[in-house]
Amino acid sequence: MAIPFVRDLEFEYGGVAQASPRIRRVIARNPGPFTYLGTGVYIVGKGEVAVIDPGPVVDEHFDALKRALEGEKVTHVLVTHSHMDHSPLAHPLAEWAGCKVYAGGSAIPSESEVRMEAGDDLRFKPDILVRDGDTFRGPDWTIEAIATPGHTSNHFCYALKEENALFAGDHVMGWSTTVISPPDGHMGDYFRSLEKVRARGFSTIWPTHGPPVTDVTPFLDQYIAHRHARERAILDRLKAGDTRIPDMVAVIYRDVDKRLHPAACHSVLAHIIHLVESGRVEAEGPLGLATDYRLRTAA
């Protein structure tokens, strides 16, 4: 079965939408191949509120958030991870609101010349480091921080307990699969984090980009199955005698625009690293795109 993606969303840039009884959303005008329709900023609660993933520093967007928050007290600015489409506005917003920025720390910058994401926010540092299980409260909301490394090493999701909902950042997206690119992205961590989220049995997932996922368990089942299928395809190429990642990509992604093959190489590398770490594949040298790989021979 294919992943049951959800891509339709009615919205207006600069407007504020009541997404659920406790959740409002403002979408920044920064659509693109990694951001889809744009960064969806979530405002949780009424009166005293938390803001999740404020997004990029764009005057129009900042003004829209200020209008949406007029007359309210922002008590927490929460960030899922430090990419340019999520975290840059966090400190300006917190300074305007008179509160602190909470996140899992700084990311490991990528040295790749291939742009796999919206870019690392290298200047971002939270005021307060978030730990797995930390809880934040307002008059009508309770948010739990859930460590979900994989997309980045510092990725956190946030659970809204009153609605059994998860603000997933880029960990799970309804419109697309998630980019995992070494060195900051780690496929083994990502698998474990997906299982961690699936075990919680959330009713709704609110990604930072795109519409919510409401049929959560079947969606996550297929999300995980897709990754396992990709690993099987890589193992099949190794069995066929391919030893280099570009050769594997040429076959596995033969129906994909060749301009995207350099990015696909990084995704395959993330899977290869996981296969090496789990003892199924051997590497002849440092783990990288130019290394030769082969199936590990049983002792």
Structure description:
- The protein has 299 residues and is α/β, with parallel strands linked by helices.
- It has two domains: 17-214, Ribonuclease Z/Hydroxyacylglutathione hydrolase-like (Metallo-beta-lactamase, Chain A, 4-Layer Sandwich), CATH 3.60.15.10; 224-295, Orthogonal Bundle (Arc Repressor Mutant, subunit A), CATH 1.10.10.10.
- Helices cover 27% and strands 21% of the residues.
- The chain has helices at residues 59-68, 90-97, 187-200, 216-239, 245-252, 261-277; strands at residues 17-20, 23-27, 40-44, 48-52, 73-78, 100-103, 128-129, 135-138, 141-147, 156-160, 165-169, 204-207, 281-284, 292-295.
- The protein has a seven-stranded mixed sheet with strand order 1-2-3-4-5-6-7, covered by helices on one side. A five-stranded mixed sheet has the order 8-9-10-11-12, with no helix packed on it. A two-stranded antiparallel sheet has the order 13-14.
- A hairpin with a 2-residue loop joins strand 8 and strand 9.
- Helix 5 (245-252) crosses helix 6 (261-277).
- The longest helix is centred in the last third of the chain and has 24 residues, at 216-239.
- The protein is elongated, with a radius of gyration of 20 Å.
Précis, in short:
The protein is 27% helix and 21% strand. With 299 residues, the protein is an alpha/beta fold.
